[in-house]
Design brief:
Rossmann fold, 9 helices, 39% helix, globular
Length: 256
């Protein structure tokens, strides 16, 4: 029952995130800074004391959380999308090779610190969903283009988020780690299978066969917009800029 209870709390968190979108154009600072920066907040500041109290057992309301952000150098005049990343490590800082890709794809990167594999899954999920609200308070972005991703254990968390909230995350990139969903935890299976998914692994990745199996399960379940990418020289590691760009092209619908 406790697991179900915490899942419900996370559901509340994402509903709050979604609820901010209609008004985000009015309240967002729409900061003009680009490049790497960090944003700090507490759940009390984000949600208010009463709402934050619901999460005390997961994330204390007065704990200062840091999200690492990379804002693209956007010269297109179009609203950027949002790329929520779940790191397996202590830091959420962007891989330097990915910066140019975020510029090219016009995506804001955001990832929480202290959300690695050693932290409880519920905490990691809450911090990832709240990343959407944090970003909405500072930048105006296209809420129809919100992607979730993660590497290794972070990829597994990303696969939980994508399944739980298909109305929020329209695309997901699972890097060397992914879990298939349990039917009891899929609130909107019809919506989920309409979204886009990339399963990225390598021939030297110890999670390769499991990733391939989950990819086939997605296809069998009706998620036709799924792509398997296998790097010939990739082991259990982050992809380079070229592979990341290819994956994001697929998630954004630029390539099939």
């Amino acid at each position: 029952m406790k697991k179900l209870f915490t899942q419900n709390l996370i559901g509340i968190a994402i509903c709050v995130c979604v609820g901010v979108f209609p008004e985000c154009s009015a309240i967002a600072q729409n900061r003009s800074d680009t490049g790497e920066l960090a944003v700090e907040s507490t759940l009390i500041q984000l949600l208010g004391a009463q709402q934050a109290k619901l999460y005390d057992e997961i994330v204390p309301g007065d704990e200062t959380i840091t999200w690492q952000v990379y804002v693209p150098d956007n010269k297109t005049g179009q609203l950027p999308g949002l790329f929520v990343y779940v790191s397996p490590h202590r830091s959420g800082q962007i891989d330097p090779r990915w910066k140019d890709v975020m510029d090219q794809q016009n995506l804001i990167y955001i990832a929480a610190d202290r959300s690695g594999n050693r932290k409880p899954v519920n905490r990691r999920m809450v911090l990832a969903t709240q990343a959407v609200r944090v970003a909405a308070q500072h930048w105006v972005f296209d809420n129809r283009k919100i992607m979730v991703s993660g590497f290794s254990g972070g990829g597994r968390v990303a696969s939980m988020l994508a399944v739980q909230y298909p109305d929020v995350f329209t695309g997901a990139l699972y890097i060397c780690g992914v879990d298939f969903w349990k039917k009891s935890r899929v609130p909107q299976i019809e919506k989920l299978v309409q979204n886009r998914f990339v399963f990225l692994t390598g021939k030297k990745d110890f999670n390769r066969e499991e990733t391939r199996q989950v990819y086939r399960k997605y296809l069998k379940a009706g998620a036709e917009h799924s792509k398997l990418m296998e790097g010939s020289n990739l082991s259990h590691e982050l992809p380079d800029a070229r592979s990341l760009g290819e994956a994001l092209d697929f998630l954004s619908g630029k390539a099939e």
